[in-house]
Amino acid sequence: MKSKSTQDLLTSEKEFFDRESAELKDEALIIKPHTIERYRNARPKLGNFSKDTLFSRIMPLDGKRVLDYGCGAGENACLLAACGAEVWGFDLSPVSIEKARRRAELMALSQRAHFDVYAAGQTGYPDAFFDIVICFAILHHLHMMLDDVYREVSRVLKPGGTAYAIEPVANHVIVRKLRRVFPVELIATPDERQLLNPELQRMDQFGFTEVKFTYSLFLERFYRVFGDKHQRPLRRLDDRIERMFPFLRPLYGMVLVSAIKKENRT
Question: H or E element: which one contains 132?
Answer without folding.
Answer: strand 130-136
